[in-house]
Protein: YceI family protein
Amino acid sequence: MKNRNSKIAMLLVLAVSFMSFTVLKDKKVDVSTSKVTWKGYKVGGEHEGTIALKEGSLKFNGETLEGGSFTIDMTSINTTDLSGDYKDKLDGHLKSDDFFGVEEFPTASLKITSVSGKNGKYNVKGDITIKGITESISFPMTVSENSATASLKIDRTKHKITYKSPSLLETIKDKAIYDEFDINVELKF
Structure:
């Protein structure tokens, strides 16, 4: 009887252990099918384009998002609403030290630090590093079976990108480039 009770107790301990066992799973992002777009705003207009993901993954506990990290290839920044010399000029200017300084800072990164929400609808907090400067941000993310979408608003001045910033130079109001720009992300795994 004592031996039987020991076996039952051992089975119960094993069952509880398996039930409380957390399965963390990384889902690697397919950088060839994922898409990152940007949109910047200026007085009287806007420009938009793409940036390539270099690598990324999301971390799940079962089906619930728990974290993730991404590396963005800043040398790939590209304007999609212009062509010819105007496009070449803006692409070159975005890569220069006035903006992202891609020669010294060829990548940017995002590391998710906390996640709240459920059922595929999350509020994500993370640390974004641009030009070697890390700032905390938060943004909504929606996750489905094989994809995720997110929309981020970035204040460029927090990364020492101040070219024609209206918050710093009152004299350029009619030629100002607004401090915030948008990043929209469509991830495929």
